[in-house]
Design brief:
Elements (H helix, E strand, L loop, with lengths): L2 H7 L3 H24 L5 H11 L12 H11 L3 H25 L5 H24 L6 H18 L18
Helix pairs in contact: 2-5, 3-5, 4-5, 5-6, 6-7
């Protein structure tokens, strides 16, 4: 493929990266939908989490961490890329929120929102440590087990702050 052909379809790096971002989101959606379609109950949320920590032998997480590193670097200077990534992570968070509510009815709505935010944050940070910085993939299990303990801690001791931050709310651009 020539540079001219790429430039014909993507006049600048921002347009190209937005298309890559959309494509990767679709890849994840397809993998998760195909895997979760037949699941119910506890296996459903476990499968979502195991997928993101690359613990499913039959549905490996895409090896796209360097692409996401590049997108986050570009997001520092591109509102469009920042908005696209924020939207995709928020969508993942909303999906996880719903799965937590269904799987753990004893969780409050606020608790499910907080856990979804923490899980998405942990997923991103985890892969920066493992894929980008070269920590052992054995940490996949450590992070995944930590999420189970986090969920159980929210069930055991629900948050009491009624003035909690609205999870997933973004600040207004400067």
């Amino acid at each position: 493929m020539s540079r001219q052909l790429v430039r014909h379809y993507f006049p600048d790096h921002e347009t190209l990266m937005l298309a890559v971002c959309d494509h990767l989101a679709q890849v994840y959606r397809d993998l998760l939908v195909n895997k979760a379609r037949s699941l119910e109950g506890p296996s459903r949320i476990a499968t979502f989490l195991d997928f993101y920590f690359d613990l499913l032998a039959d549905a490996p997480k895409p090896r796209d961490d360097r692409v996401y590193d590049a997108m986050f670097a570009l997001a520092a200077h591109s509102e469009a890329i920042r908005d696209e990534l924020a939207g995709q992570y928020q969508t993942l968070g909303q999906l996880l929120h719903q799965e937590f509510v269904v799987q753990y009815p004893e969780l409050t709505d606020q608790s499910a929102s907080e856990i979804s935010y923490l899980v998405v944050s942990l997923i991103y940070g985890h892969w920066k440590m493992v894929a980008s910085l070269g920590h052992s993939e054995e940490h996949n299990k450590v992070s995944r087990q930590a999420i189970d303990r986090l969920i159980q801690s929210y069930i055991a001791v629900p948050p009491s702050d009624s003035t909690a931050v609205k999870v997933w709310e973004r600040k207004a651009p400067n």
